[in-house]
Amino acid sequence: MRCVLPLPSREAAGRALATALGPQCVGPDVLVLALPRGGVPVGFEIAQAMGAELDLLLVRKLGMPGDPELALGAIAAGGFRVLNPDLLALAGLDDVALARLEALEVAELERRALRYRGHRAPPVWRGRRVLLVDDGIATGATMQAAVAAARAGGPAQLWVAVPVASRHACAALAPKVDGLVCLATPEPFGAVAQFYADFPQIQDEAVVALLARAWRVEPAAAGQTLASNPPGRGKQTP
User: Fold this and answer.
1) Residue 230: inside a domain, yes or no?
2) CATH number, domain containing residue 152
3) What pTM did the predictor assign?
């Protein structure tokens, strides 16, 4: 499916992705796992259109010191890590500095889990068709970590769906998943925001509100105390 850039909004992109995905991602066994924060409005629209369950897969980018938007790697809930060795060498980080950077992002993962999930237990995706969703992919580090974490949960199929991504990121991800749907792969690719007409910062409150709608609970019930981590533990470093 081709699309015209810039995309109107994350919500419009989610609806377009649902159309592009078609019947292969429809059914009671489908689980949409959105990457907070930006992936949640996209994933919400996909889940609504397909009658699928919506949940989260928490991932954090490890930003380059001095240029935090450039990803040295990423971590995912469950102890998964993906690193870019070339950028690590460029940054000159030793093991102690990398561990310090990772500890800060682990703390943020835990805070977000506490804020977003409330008492709700994480979903089980073993044997299900899992769809990982974000609002875009630049370097691909965060989605690589998400794929590693999701694979450990034993899905029957693992798909990635994003409105826009770099060609390099798509080429790296495609062999690791069962399906990859991307509406546009423009080049040159800078920041994801440049390909949207409306790209506001997503706040925690918006994530909680969308999850409450998807889970049909009061917003206060969607963000109180951490239940547990997603299934699977381990590390992956390409």
Assistant:
1) no
2) 3.40.50.2020
3) 0.87
Mapping DSSP to helix (H, G, I), strand (E, B) and coil, where does residue 110 land?
A: helix
Alpha helix locations (H) across the chain? 10-21, 39-50, 85-91, 95-117, 141-152, 167-173, 204-215
Note whether residue 234 is domain-resident.
Answer: no
Q: Are 192 and 135 in contact, with CB atoms under 8 Å apart?
A: yes
- Model confidence over 216-238: pLDDT tens digits? 887 766 765 333 333 333 333 33
Q: Can you say whether residue 27 is alpha, beta or left, with left for phi > 0 and alpha for psi between -120 and 50 degrees?
A: left
Q: Dig out the tokens for 39 from the structure.
A: 């992936």
User: Per-residue pLDDT tens for 105-119?
Assistant: 999 999 999 999 877
Q: Which two tokens stand for residue 93?
A: 């980080």
pLDDT of residue 89: 87
- Cα separation, 53 vs 63, in Å, equals 31
- Please write the tens of the pLDDT for every residue from 43-89: 999 999 999 999 999 999 999 888 887 888 999 988 889 998 888 88
Exposure on the CB side of residue 198, measured as CA atoms within 13 A: 7
129 closest CA partner among 23, 24, 33, 31: 31
Cis bond before residue 117 (omega within 30° of 0) = no
CA 223/CA 204 separation, integer angstroms: 10
What does the block give as tokens for 1?
């499916």
Token pair for 177? 């998943």
